Amino acid sequence: MENRDRHIDVWNNCLRIIEQIIDPQKFNTWFRPIKPVSMVDSTLSVEVPSDFFREYLEDAFLDIIKKTLKRVIGADARLVYQVRPVSVEPAMKFPAATVGTPVNKTVAVSTYNPAANPSAMVFPGVQKVQINPRLNPAYCFANLVEGECNKLGISAGFNISRAPGKNSFNPLFIFAGPGLGKTHLLQAIGIEVKERFPDLVVLYVTGNEFQTQYVDAVMGNKLTDFMAYYMRIDVLLVDDIHEMQGRASQNAFFNVFNHLHHSGKQLVFTSDRAPVELQNFEERLLSRFKWGLSVELHKPEYETRLEMLRARCFREGVEIREEVLEFLASRIKTNFRELEGALISLIAHATLIRKDIDLSLAEGITEKIVGQEQSELTIDRIEKTVCDYFNITKDALLSTSRKRNIVQARQIAMYLSRNHIAGCSLSTIGAELGGKDHATVLHACMTVSDLMSTSRTFKQYVVEIEKMLVS
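The structure assignment produced for this chain is given below.
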């Protein structure tokens, strides 16, 4: 008699073998959610929660799965994946909810007597140090929603985590406006590296923290220890590197960069602007930021915003009607952070006042976050406001005219676009404002900034136009 449950028996036998081989935590995370579907001859079909889940299985456990299937089914064993439809997907724990906080191995760091003045003839001591990677497991790739706005960044980050220091993206420079996922992507790279290469030393630090640590090291006569510490890192993740403004700290970072890059270590940076737009940075450091790949993260489109809300509801274990999620996604367009904040606030209000999550509650919450309905600030709106203020036509503003009043109006429009539209690159601004290149826009922004500090009248122009845009 034919065994209709053969696929279940075969998969259970596979699970019993795999459970003896891999870590229990990983087994529960990556194998328990898999469901056997059918079996035809030597081909076993299984259902997995998502494409990412399938990709991770094949990357991390392919050899184990192949050997186990051959052992249970035979030499002709084949495995076919089916991705579970979202509408019927049962609750499952995301990897971030089950993995522990990543830790680094203990490493030897050369140290000197704090009272000494190290020279070439001083022999260092050796101290065992465990460097805290400072990674938050919630910021893993599994919890990062992919869309057109961040696809290139995620792809580059995932490639780096597979071969840190041995790829073309070194350094990887990620830039975007606030709340667009720079920190999440940066940490996801570090978490994935620790999953794949536990022995590599990973460190997440902000540009401001590096600068503060450098100053403390100088004040405490421990600069040599500070440098030795950073030169032991295998994957250095620097968030908001634009905050590293001190010349001395930049010089120290330049030496750290050179040592790590020449040693085949991986460097990943984030900033609120592209390398070419960074101000008060040494040229030699800026040139190194451009060695690898620069990736811009853009504002999320509607589909990505909606998918992010669904994913967060899934992680929080709550069910919210689709019409409410669609309302939030259409109302909050600026960035992921505001969108996620609105959702959490909505859940919290519903819990505290014991009220159903409906459109009425969602409207009240979003009104407090983004205010009354107003036209979204765009380059086109800035152009119109500047033209109205100076009483010039839009054609004149976008022309090649070198008349002083036209040039200054155009420069102010560029300056306001750069400072008030999150995630808008210099190239985009230049293209919209008369087909100028990014260097022209950068020069315009610097000129406006200088004139505002030296001319009270010019500063008043800019302030009054800003008030018009806000109102």
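Interim note for the steering committee: Residues 124-296 form a domain with the Rossmann fold fold (CATH 3.40.50.300). DSSP finds 20 helices and ten strands in the chain.
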